[in-house]
Amino acid sequence: MIEVRGLTKRYGNALAVDDLSFAVEPGKVTGFLGPNGAGKSTTMRLVLGLDRPTSGEALVDGQPFASLRDPLRRVGALLDAGLVHPGRSGRAHLQVAARTAGLPRRRVDEVIDLAGLGGAAGRRVKGYSLGMRQRLGIAAALLGNPSVLIFDEPINGLDLDGVRWLRGLLRQLADEGRTVLLSSHLLAEMQQTADRLVVIGRGRLIADATTDEVLQGMGGPRARLRTPEPDRMLAELTRRGLTARAHGDEIEVEGASAEQVSVVAHEVGVPLHHLSDGTHDLEQAYLELTERHVDHRSGPQPSAPTTPKEER
Ligand SMILES: Nc1ncnc2c1ncn2[C@@H]1O[C@H](COP(=O)(O)OP(=O)(O)OP(=O)(O)O)[C@@H](O)[C@H]1O
Asked: What is the CATH number of domain 222-277?
């Protein structure tokens, strides 16, 4: 369990984290979202005792990180996958980390397997792709078999296989009852991976709810349908005050559920070939949530979800 209470961090005149309070519960994957400069990394560093708060507190299992006994067995973190001695092999890096933390040697091979490093574990880290470095960082975070895991942008640099693997690993860690917090700007990925979302902007809390609640909170129900009489259906929906648009051979309806749309179709005798409840695009929800909380916006925002970079 991670608890952040009234957490504030000031760097000179800049307020990086501003009276932030939220809790990250065990057994769930919690996504930590926010625009660039929102304060996500600073918050994670404060939770990990790598920086001191100006005021407020960040607790892990009820204690500040600095007071934890055996912290590496309690908390595992991936902050910057670049911070590894380039001349060492992945295995050697993990062996040094295990020895320093007083962890058994066999644990190194276990986390190499868990992180899917395989044969790459014997190669020097300087030859690793960003995706392999991320896997190594995740392996290191898992070394102490901790109950709390904190990953800063773990998806960066992973190829599609890597993203799928990470999604499965995060789910497994949460299902084992661990507390899992990950930051990412890959919103479409969060939509699939996170059970809950903590969204911040300019250091302040914007949303703290289940992923479904964040999505549903943006504009109410939606439905999608296909019909051989699209013009008539569009007219009927619009006449009832609903926003309905054609996308190819599909019609998207805002403000009504699939059930409500089926009643309309039945009333006017329009046949439906497909009808489902629509989901909100997290990208859109996120942009709307954070719109008022961004310091700088550079040019038009992309409307398509960001896709992960290919592993080099
Ligand atoms: N050591 C520091 N000294 C001064 N300012 C800092 C320091 N660390 C962070 N900041 C500032 O605090 C704010 C929050 O930064 P932070 O890196 O926590 O945001 P973030 O949400 O992780 O952003 P990103 O997604 O870009 O990594 C930014 O304005 C940043 O410039």
From this structure: 3.30.70
Give the domain ranges of the chain: 2-210, 222-277
Where would I find the H helices in the chain? Answer: 40-47, 71-74, 90-100, 106-114, 130-142, 160-175, 187-193, 211-216, 230-239, 258-268, 282-290
Mutating to test ligand 1, I would choose from 42, 204, 205, 295 the residue with most ligand atoms within 8 A of its C-beta, which is: 42
Find the helix or strand (DSSP H, E) in which 20 lies: strand 14-24
Pocket test for ligand 1, best of 9, 11, 46 (most atoms within 8 A of CB): 11
Instruction: Judge whether 153 and 104 are in contact, CB under 8 Å.
Output: no
Return the SS3 of 173. Answer: helix
The structure tokens listed for 274 are 């497909």
Please state, in angstroms and rounded to a whole number, the distance separating the CA atoms of residues 268 and 232.
Answer: 9
CA of 16 to the centre of ligand 1 (A): 6
d(CA 205, CA 200): 5
Mean pLDDT by 10 residues, the chain (312 residues): 97 94 97 88 96 96 92 90 79 93 92 91 91 93 96 88 92 97 80 90 89 70 92 95 91 89 95 85 67 53 39 38
- In short, whether 64's Cβ falls inside 6 Å of ligand 1 is no
Q: What is the CATH number of domain 2-210?
A: 3.40.50.300
Amino acid at 305: P
The reply to whether ligand 1 has any atom less than 6 angstroms from the CB of 16 is yes
